[in-house]
Amino acid sequence: QVQLVESGGGLVQPGGSLTLSCATSGRTSSTYAMGWFRQAPGKEREFVAAIERSGGSTYYASAVKGRFTISRDNAKNTMYLQMNSLKPGDTAVYYCAADLNPTRGIPTREPLYEYWGQGTQVTVSS
Fold first, then answer.
1. Hey, what's the torsion of the CAs at 95, 107, 78, 125, to 10 degrees?
2. Which residues contact 111 (CB under 8 A, 6 or more apart)?
3. CA–CA dist 98, 82 (Å, integer)
4. Using one digit for the tens of pLDDT, what is the confidence trace for 25-48?
């Protein structure tokens, strides 16, 4: 079992920045790729960014590329999402997820992630 807990969400003005954290516990040595997803009101959950185990490879959705940065500190069992130049369209509940399969590279599809956090709300508004 792997437990994931997100933190760092909140209210921010357009153009502002936030950093989300995802702390993992349990079988952390079994986690490989990790990802961030988000779900806006009335919309389906969508992929945001993902990072492979060593942190050397990352992948971003086109909507956030160049504004968001995903990273992880395996010594602290924590993943991060630095979000800059935030827009009202970034308003959503943000979820972190963990993949325990070592063969999948950097998955972008929800079903490929076995464990999920409870989510943290990010609201971008003036």
1. -40
2. none
3. 18
4. 988 776 789 999 999 999 999 999
- pLDDT, residue 102, reads 84
Which amino acid is located at 94 in the chain?
A: Y
Give the CA diameter of the chain: 43
What is the pLDDT, as a whole number, of residue 66? Answer: 97
Residue with tokens 């602290």: 76
Residue 27's alpha-carbon distances to 24, 32, 36, 54, 108, in angstroms, are 9, 11, 19, 16, 22
From the centroid of its chain, how far is CA 126? 24
3-state SS track over the chain: CEEEEEECCEEECCCCCEEEEEEEEECHHHCCCEEEEEECCCCCCEEEEEECCCCCCEEECCCCECCEEEEEECCCCEEEEEECCCCHHHCEEEEEEECCCCCCCCCCCHHHCCEECCCEEEEECC
Task: Determine the Cα–Cα distance for residues 114 and 96; give it in Å rounded to an integer.
Answer: 11
The DSSP bridge pattern shows strands 78-83 and 115-116 to be unpaired
